[in-house]
Structures are given as C-alpha cells and as structure tokens.
C-alpha cells in the first residue's frame, strides 16, 4: 500500500496487480468493403490483412503481403449498445468501486471516433459511449443508497498544443485570465485552471456535455465533413462516502473519456490554410503519443517521453498508470484506406503490450479520523480503569494535569529540596514527568534569584571580557591579581550599580539633549501629530481603542440580506392600485414614474435600499476613523523607535555591561521597549479591525447593489405593465390569475397561445413513456439548443443595433 499526504487529507492506494491494456477494433460500415483483403477470426478477436504483390517490382519481390493482429475484440456492423456493453460498461462499473478508468478512441480521420465516443444528439438510440457512461454512473448511484456519492465533470480540449476549457462559456465560469497548465503532484496529473462542475442529476451532466460539444472546433475536408480538429478529454470524477459506517475512509476515482483527433494524409484530405496547420499539429501529437506507447511497451526503457506534447502529458496517469485502460481503434473497411488501417492496427498492437496497475484510491478524512481516535482513546481509558480496579489499585487519573496539580507537585519538589519532605510518592508516568519538569523549573528560578541578588550588590563583569577588566584596572578599582582595592582591615568597597538619580552629569546632559531632539521632531510633524510634549516622557501609550460591535453588525447585515432576498412584488390589486387614477393617454416620463413607484409599489424595496446604504456609509466612516488611529499609532511607533536608537547609541558610547551574554540596560531604555511592544500590539489589533471593516464594507456594497438592481428591475416591470399592457388583460396579472407580474415579456403578452415548447412538451409526454430513460437526455438537448439560439439572436440584435 502506498501512502501520500496532501493538506488535511491522507491518500492511500492499494497496490493492484498489473494487467495489460484492452484493445478493441471497430470497423466503419461501408458498401465497398474489401472482403478479399480483410478477414476476421472465428472468435472475433483477430483480424487478418492480405495485400496482393505489386508485379511492377519484378520477380524478386520481398514485399510483405500478410498481417495478423490479435486483439480483445473486433466489432463489425456493431450497434452503439453492443459497443458500449463490450468496451466501456465494466470500466465504468469499477470506477464506483474506486478504480480509475480511461477509454480512448483512436484512428484516422473520418473513421467514426467521435460517433463512437459521443454519438448523435438527434437520436437517443445513437448516443455514444460518453452519454451512456453518465447514465450508468447515475443509475448505479441510485442502486447504492448506503453511500453518499458525488459526481463532478470537466471537459478539456487540446487544440494546436494549447489547452482550452470547453465549459468556460457558462455564465458562472467565464474565460480564464491565465492560460491553463498541466501540473504534477504526488496524487497525479491535473490541469490547473480547468473548471470542474458538480452535477447532482443526470440532466445536469447531459447539459454540460452538450455545452462542451457545441464549443468544439470542427472543420471540413474531403475525408470528413465534420472533422474534429482537436483532442478532447471528458472526465467524470466520483467520490463515495459510506452512510452506514463512521469510518474515515472513502474512495475516489475518475473516468477519462478521450476522443482523439484523427490522423490524416494531407494528399488525401486536401487540407489547406488553417486546416493544414491543424492537421500538422494533430499528426505531430499522435506521433508523440505513439512514441510514448512504444517506450511503455519496452520493459527495458527507463525514461518515458510524456512531456513531448500536451496530449501525452495530460494522459500520463492513464497511459500505463493507475487505471483500467481500454483502447478502441476505429478503422475503414475500404481498400483505398488500407495503409491507414494497417497503421491504426499497428498502434493497437503496440498498446496491447502496455501494462497498467489499477488500484483502489482510498482517502482518509482528517476530521473524521480525529473523532474516531478520540472515541478509541476514551474506550482505552475505560479499559485501563477496569484493569486498575481488578488489580486493587487506587483510582488513578490518566488525564493531563491541570494547574492545581502542577502547583502541588512544585510545592512537593521545593519541600523535598528543603528537607521537610522525605520522599515523593509515584502515581503514574505523567506525574513522574511533571516532577522532573518542576525540578528544572525550581533550579532555573534559584539561578535567577542568585543572579538578581548579585546584581543588586555588585556590577558583574565577564572574566573573558579583557577590555572591561583592563578599564577597571586603569581606574584603580581592581589590582593586578583581580582583588578589590579597599581598606587594609578587609572592609573594602565593591563595584555597585549607582541609582539613576546619582548618574554623572554628562549623561543627564545627554538626556536633556535627547528630549530636545524629540521635541523638535514633534514640532516638525505639526499640530495634527498625536505626540505632544508631555507624551515625550518615557511611559506606556495611552491610546484608547473603541471596540466595534461586530456581532451586532453581522446580525444586522444578515437581517438585511434576508429582507433583500425575500422581497416579493406587491400584488397588483393593492388598495393603492385600486384607487389610482385612470391610465393617461401617454406614458409619463420615467423619472417621474420612478418617484411614484418608490412611494407605492416599490416602497418596501426602497426602504431596505436606504437602510443598507446607511449601514454602508457608517462602516466607511468607522473604517476612516480606524485608519486615522492606525496612522497615529504608526507615527508614535516611529518616535519611540528613534528614542530607542538614541538610547542604544548613548549606551554604546558610555560602555555596555553584559552578564552571561545578556545585555544590561537602564530603566529608561527598558520602558521604551515596553512602550514599543504595547504600540505594536495596538497596531496589530487596529489593523485586524480595519480588515474586518473592509470585508463588511464589501459585503454591504454587495447588498446595496443587489437592492438597486432589484429596485430598477421591479420598476421596469411595473412601468411596462402599468402603461403598455391593455386594461382588459390586467385581470390575468392579478394574484388570482395564472400569470405573475414579470413572468411574460410585454412583447408576448398579447400572444399567450401554445408555442413550440408547449407542443414539444405535450408530444414528449405522449411518446417518451416507451423510453423513459431518454427524458433527461432530450431535456438537456432542448435547453442547450434554446440557450444557443437565444445567444445567436442577441448577438444578431447587437450587430444590427451597431449598424
């Protein structure tokens, strides 16, 4: 079992057994099938190719004329159902058990790869592997109620060695600013910047599939009218958690469905211009793919050239990695395409030599793991208590010690050192460890007490500090042997620390000079500086911060958000609307009507809008005040730092005192350090408050914009319904009617008859009971077509408006 870590999650992969890649061949149906050249084996697992010798090469002709290819299956005149059952069903089924899977379609252009992988959206029976795999995944999820399974999908396109997200046209995704890149980590290969979409039902997955299909790049040439000009990889991500077990383990897997662009001979396809450039990139990437396959099939090769192109790099996990790999080779059955058919079959035979090592992908949730460990710890404590009771031991507490117990052990250690306690009773391992720890604490405290007593009585000089010893000897305070110079009766004088009030005059003068410098620097800052002359004395800062009532603010904003989201337009038969005057012959100007709307139907939205705006202004005011306080603290910190630097330079001039590597400073410098520390703490607090206020301002701004948009939208609906819809149709817009205000555009309010969508829905209910599984497929298809028709219409209107 391999173990990998990533953040709060741990990844475990069970080592699987190595297995070879499964390869299948699908022959495209044709009226001109070469029966004399292409033969199938009796078991439908082999295909033989026979070519007649070219007599133009003479009598001695060593041209190869026969080839035989052993595969896992040959699909000739096979339906889409049979292809899926044979090729993909087992791979998809094992994906829900934690195994990765890859299904790849390979072949020359026009051989039917896209039809095999995607199928046609016009006929439900002709759907390909991809929509059938989505259906199977959701069917298996319904059959496993004991597991919570989530499904996500992504759609990648590789066009001219560039990566594109085929689902970036969705409104909530948008185009990426930075180009997508292929990134490798211990968990495998993934595409940075590729959007992954959560799908909770089958219809949503089909909608994403059809959305991506409409964004694919296709072109036309002599071999294929709708030739795919890019490689596409549709990935299904599956994550399964058990509902019945509290185990922290869960499984993940992914299914890569790869539709490769077809290789083409430029002489046959007749490609020119942009299509020629695309064909060059396609053939180049397929050549690199074949080189990687050849290297994987050679057991002696150590280096596999995955990074030669984007296609092989993106499929690094699938090619010989941790997955069930299936290759479906599409070939022509015509004699004119026999060379390309041989090339495709050679690729399939090389792929069959590649081995993979599929294994179950298990992950462990760190939070659930901690909870399980806590439960296990409590159970072990209970078992230990039972063991103590059976062994007639007194009640032992195995929990971590609290402050009272630590203080009691400290007291026992002190009494033991003083001799008043003969021995310390041993209870458990935690108590022994804490006793040794308290011995260390008591020893450290005694060392500090001795050092402080010596400092009060003497000035300590390091024996290795020869400069300090030489200076004391020159002053006549110590003789050559290091003894103090004093009276002969032995009562000499020592080197003590003079009080601050009795320091030499030079130092007091320098202090005065320093204060004068601070005063001058404070005057330069002007009257706006918070540092006055009195505050130049060394003391702690007196800056007071007003705490913000964040909980109340968040509560207010939550209430505003609920009010904003729950606004519903007032009914059209309200008392104000019943008493309103008759409709004027000409609509009033919109500014005048807007004021009436804010006083009548939009009064509630307008009230919430004003309240949200007042909250936003109040947050901005508080943010401005907080910014001013931060600037004031920053200026005070700068002044304090300048004072510290001055004290440090003064201490260096007068001589520094050290003891055991510790610098000895005077009281004034110590107070400056404390003041600077307090100022930094206040600065951090204020800065955090400012960050919170900025987040609140951004949130309030979002609510204000939402209210403004809602107000304008409701006004447009009210204005159109009040002055443009005929009065005889106003009854249908009342609460008792079948139409709510704003549901139907004004342009269609006069034609409420049955449209094409209604006819389709009725027809669908009549015909689809014979195949109920197709409802999600057709619904997604219709929604996608409606969306793109709408976008085309809007683009046409915009272009016409520009002209």
UniProtKB/TrEMBL annotation:
Residues 538-549 have a biased composition (Polar residues). Interacts with HYDIN. CDD domains: KISc_KIF9_like. Essential for normal male fertility and for progressive motility of spermatozoa. Pfam families: KIF9, Kinesin. PANTHER family: CENTROMERE PROTEIN E (PTHR47968), KINESIN FAMILY MEMBER 5A (PTHR47968:SF62). This is Kinesin-like protein. Residues 582-591 have a biased composition (Pro residues). Keywords: ATP-binding, Cell projection, Cilium, Coiled coil, Cytoplasm, Cytoskeleton, Flagellum, Microtubule, Motor protein, Nucleotide-binding, Phosphoprotein. The gene is KIF9. Residues 496-595 are annotated as: Disordered. Residues 550-565 have a biased composition (Basic and acidic residues). GO terms for molecular function: ATP binding; microtubule binding; microtubule motor activity. GO terms for biological process: microtubule-based movement. It comes from Acinonyx jubatus. Its main location: cytoplasm. GO terms for cellular component: microtubule. The keyword Transport does not apply. Residues 20-354 form the Kinesin motor domain.
């Amino acid at each position: 079992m391999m173990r990998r870590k990533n953040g709060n999650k741990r990844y475990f992969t069970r080592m699987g057994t190595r297995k070879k890649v499964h390869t299948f061949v699908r022959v495209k149906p044709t009226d001109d099938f070469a029966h004399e050249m292409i033969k199938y084996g009796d078991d439908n697992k082999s295909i033989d190719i026979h070519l007649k010798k070219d007599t133009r090469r003479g009598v001695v002709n060593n041209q190869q004329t026969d080839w035989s290819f052993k595969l896992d299956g040959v699909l000739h005149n096979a339906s889409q159902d049979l292809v899926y059952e044979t090729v993909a069903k087992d791979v998809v089924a094992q994906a829900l058990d934690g195994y990765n899977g890859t299904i790849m379609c390979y072949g020359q252009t026009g051989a039917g790869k896209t039809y095999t992988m995607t199928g046609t959206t016009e006929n439900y029976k002709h759907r390909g592997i991809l929509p059938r795999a989505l259906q199977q995944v959701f069917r298996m999820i319904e059959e496993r109620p004991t597991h919570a399974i989530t499904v996500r999908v992504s759609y990648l396109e590789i066009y001219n060695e560039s990566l594109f997200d085929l689902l970036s046209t969705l409104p909530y995704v948008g185009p990426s600013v930075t180009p997508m890149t292929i990134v490798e980590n211990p968990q495998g290969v993934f595409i940075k910047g590729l959007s992954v979409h959560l799908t909770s039902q089958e219809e949503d997955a089909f909608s994403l599939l059809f959305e991506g299909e409409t964004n694919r790049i296709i072109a036309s040439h002599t071999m294929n009218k709708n030739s795919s000009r890019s490689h596409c990889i549709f990935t299904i991500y599956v994550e399964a958690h058990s509902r019945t077990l509290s185990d922290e383990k869960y499984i993940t897997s992914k299914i890569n469905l790869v539709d490769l662009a077809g290789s083409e001979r430029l002489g046959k396809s007749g490609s020119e211009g942009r299509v020629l450039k695309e064909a060059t990139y396609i053939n180049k990437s397929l050549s690199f793919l074949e080189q990687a396959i050849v290297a994987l099939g050679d057991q002696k090769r150590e280096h596999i050239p995955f990074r030669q192109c984007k296609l092989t790099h993106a499929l690094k996990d699938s090619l010989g990695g941790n997955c069930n790999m299936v290759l479906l080779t599409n070939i022509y059955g015509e004699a004119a395409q026999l060379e390309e058919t041989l090339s495709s079959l050679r690729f399939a035979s090389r792929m069959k030599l590649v081995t993979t090592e599929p294994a179950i992908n298990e992950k462990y949730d760190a939070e659930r793991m901690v909870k399980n460990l806590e439960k296990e710890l409590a159970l072990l404590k209970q078992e230990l208590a039972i063991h103590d009771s059976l062994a007639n031991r007194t009640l032992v507490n195995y929990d971590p010690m609290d402050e009272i117990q630590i203080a009691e052990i400290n007291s026992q250690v002190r009494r033991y050192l003083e001799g008043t306690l003969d021995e310390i009773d041993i209870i458990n391992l935690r108590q022994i460890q804490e006793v040794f720890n308290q011995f260390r604490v008591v020893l450290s405290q005694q060392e500090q007490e001795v050092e402080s007593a010596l400092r009060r009585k003497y000035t300590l000089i390091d024996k290795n500090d020869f400069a300090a010893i030489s200076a004391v000897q020159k002053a006549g305070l110590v003789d050559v042997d290091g003894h103090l110079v004093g009276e002969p009766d032995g009562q000499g004088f020592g080197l003590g620390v003079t009080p601050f009030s009795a320091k030499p005059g030079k130092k007091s003068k320098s202090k005065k000079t320093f204060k004068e410098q601070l005063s001058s620097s404070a005057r330069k800052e002007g009257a706006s500086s918070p540092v006055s002359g009195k505050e130049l004395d060394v003391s702690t800062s007196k800056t007071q911060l007003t705490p913000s009532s964040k909980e109340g603010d968040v509560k207010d904003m939550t209430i505003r958000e609920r009010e904003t989201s729950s606004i519903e337009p007032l009914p059209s038969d309200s008392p104000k609307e019943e008493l309103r005057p008759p409709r004027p012959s000409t609509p009033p100007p919109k500014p005048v009507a807007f004021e009436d709307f804010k006083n009548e139907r939009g009064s509630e939205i307008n009230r919430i809008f004003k309240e949200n705006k007042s909250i936003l202004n109040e947050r901005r005011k508080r943010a401005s005040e907080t910014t001013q306080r931060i600037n004031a603290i920053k200026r005070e910190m700068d002044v304090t730092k300048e004072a510290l630097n001055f004290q440090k330079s003064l201490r260096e001039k007068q001589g520094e005192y050290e003891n055991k590597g510790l610098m000895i400073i005077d009281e004034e410098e110590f107070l400056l350090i404390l003041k600077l520390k307090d100022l930094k703490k206040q600065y951090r607090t204020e800065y955090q408050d400012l960050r919170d206020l900025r987040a609140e301002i951004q949130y309030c701004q979002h609510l204000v914009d939402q209210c403004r948009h809602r107000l304008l939208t409701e006004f447009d609906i009210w204005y159109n319904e009040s002055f443009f819809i005929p009065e005889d149709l106003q009854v249908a817009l009342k609460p008792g009617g079948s139409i709510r205000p704003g549901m139907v555009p004004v342009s269609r309010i006069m034609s409420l008859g049955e449209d094409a969508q209604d006819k389709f829905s009725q027809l669908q209910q009549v015909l689809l009971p014979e195949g109920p599984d197709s409802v999600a497929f057709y619904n997604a298809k219709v929604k996608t077509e409606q969306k793109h028709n709408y976008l085309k219409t809007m683009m046409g209107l915009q272009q016409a408006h520009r002209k």
